[in-house]
Every structure is written in C-alpha cells, then in structure tokens.
Hints:
4 domains; DNA damage; 17 strands; Alpha-Beta Plaits; alpha+beta; Dna Ligase, domain 1
Amino acid sequence: MRAVASVLHLDLDAFFAAVEQRDKPSLRGKPVVVGGVGGRGVVSTASYEARRYGVRSAMSTREARARCPHAAFLTGRFHAYRDTSERVMALLRSVSPLVEPLSLDEAFVDLAAADRATYPQLADLSVPSVTAFAEHLRARVEEVTGGLTASVGVASSKFLAKVASDLDKPDGLVVVPRGTERDLLRPMSVTVIPGVGPATTERLRRVGVHTVADLETLSEDELVRLLGNANGHWLHQLAQAQDDRPVVAEREAKSVSVEGTYDHDLTDRVLMEQLLTRQAVDVARRLRKAGLSGRTVTIKVRLHDFTTLNRSTTLASPTDAPATIARLARTLLADLDTSGGVRLLGVGVSGLADWVQEDLFGETTEDEEELPDVEVPHHSRRAWAPGMDVEHAEMGRGWVWGSGRGVVTVRFETAETPAGPVRSYAEDDPDLTVWRPPTPEEEPG
C-alpha cells in the first residue's frame, strides 16, 4: 500500500449502452440492452434506464426482455466501442506512462508517475490535489468521447481504487484518504474482494463470515485451512487493505479465441467440424495479425443442458497455422459425446509466443486450411442485426431498428443529427448497405 492515494481507477459508465445512446439520439434517456438478441443471448451491458427494471449484465436476454420488454435490444458495434476506448486510453496515457487497461472501458492510472510539469496540480499528491485532478480528468473524458461519463476512484492501492470507483456510480468520484481504507472496507460484503465468487462466499458464510469486518476476525492460518494456500493468503491481505500490486503498463494477451452460440441445438457432427474449422481459421488470422503463435489448442463445447466442456491439447512448439489448429480442434471434438445437441462451440489458442518454431528452422508449415461452405440456419448472428450501422443511397446513414419476413426497418440518425425518421425496405434492396467506418488509408487528408 502506498503512502498517499495515487492509484486512479476509471470505469466508463454502462459503456456499450452509453455509446449506443450517444450515436442514436432517439435512444437517449431510454432503456438500452446490448448483447445477444436471440433466445439464447446474454446481456453484455444494460443502460441505467434498463437497470431500473432489474436488467443486469450476464442475464439471459430472455429474462431481460421479460423484465423490460420496451427496451431497445441491440447486438452491439465493436468498431464504435474500440474507437471510443482508444480515445480514452490515449487521454490516460497523456497523463501517465503507467496505464493498465483492464478492458475496453476501464483502466488503472499511476498518478505518481504523471508528468508534474504538465500536471502541476499533482505535485504533492494530496487529497485536494488528486480530487481536483480527477474532476478535470472526468470532464476531459466526457469531451473526448462525445458525452460519455466515467466513474473514478483514487486510493493507495489498485484494490481500493477499484472499490472506490464503484461507490458512486454513475458519473461519480470517490477519493479514499490514506489511513481510512479499513474503515471503508469493514461494513462491505466479502464479495467486494476480487475472486470471492459464489463458492467462496458460501464457505465463508458457513463459518459466520459475511462482511470484511467478519473476515478480519479470522487468522491467516484459518483462512488458508478454509480456502487453500493462495486464496487464503490473498483474502487475508485484502481484508487488511494490503495490496502492493504495481500499475503495469502492458498486459499481454494470454489467449486468442472465437466462439459462437446457436439458437437451436446443433446435432450434425459434420456441421460442428466445419464450424470449428472456420473458427480455427479466424483464430489463426488474429494470431498472425498480432504477430503471435501458441502451443495449446482448446475447444469449448456447451451442451443442450448447459454443461460446458473444455478439452485441450498442447504442441511441442507454437504454431499459427490454421490447418494445424483446425485439425487439433476437430480431433478434440471427436472424443466428446454431442448426441444430445450443442448450443455453443468455440476454439482458442493459449501458451502464446511471438515466434513460430517452424520458421526458425526453415521448415514448411501445413497447407492453409480450406474454409468449408457452411450454412448455419439458426446462428444467433443475422444479416440485418438490430443496432447495425447502415447507409441508404438517398436517406444516408442510419441503424437497423429491426428485421424479419424479408423486411428491414431503419431509423436514419447519427450522433451528429436529431432523432430521425423510420423507413422500411426489402432486405435485398440494393440501395441499402452495411456502413463501416473508413480505414486510415481511406480517410481524407
């Protein structure tokens, strides 16, 4: 733990949903749910308007629709989220060289490493100084994102900073002065500690531990006996507000994976193999784009009864060859009983390296895997997905409001326009196309 509160945690509020509301004026102030829109979809993010009806992340879309049927259910637009995230991360890196992104929408910032010449208000890192700076930073985030808000916590450790950023959501700021950390934690549920999930919570409940104050009454040895060596030591330290983890500027990817969820159970084994092959090729492309390779190939299979199976195999040396990854994925599938039906398939590669063994010795790799022509009539991704960016030859840019029975309905508006009109077209109308942001090579300038 540091001598002063100099670790900042920033969390963009309801990020995916907030980006959708920013770019779709007609949805501002209304319930928005981003995630899978099919019967087996899962909520990724819910706007605060939707949360008032009990909609939460990781909830099934089916339940979310039952709780808030009037919400806008959108599939999401990764390009918009990535672009917004990059703007925020660039802003944070202009403050300090030590920025540790946790995801697209949150990051730690080491204020002790900030450029004092550029930010003289951080010279002494006193509570008034970091509070004033954090307010300035939140205003800058709103500016660079086009109106998104962020909740910020500042404390003497990463653990406390993250806890603090959750205390006054949305659009809040909490600074935890040095010396008050344990007083802040004691009334909180033990679930505030990272890694305390349902199983650990139940074990602690059985010995009468519900809050962090209760946890403080157990010795480190007792926690080790109850939860194991690693978890016991971890919980004992954090219950005492002890966390010396540094802010790490680069977080290396541990794996690259692709998966798909299907609206109806898959039973055709040949189709499953073809889907795994396509996923393996996608994984290989992503590995090569990142200049990576991997030794361990894993498949993920979720059965009709929600049982999830993971099977892995490890190579002697890393590879980025799509044919190799696909062959191993199909081999792993062959050992599983999928006769009852499969609702999810995925392929991943871990044990990443920045080299390929075959390249070092000038050996040839396997031939490129030929993509099978796969038709999946019940995959959860649709041609005209709700929320998708589109463009019409006459009406200009808009987004898909809904589609079905050969018709796609579009609302024509963008972040820079007022709420726009709604029009319907045949799904194969040649004047209606998917809009994608221009690449850097295509941008004028």
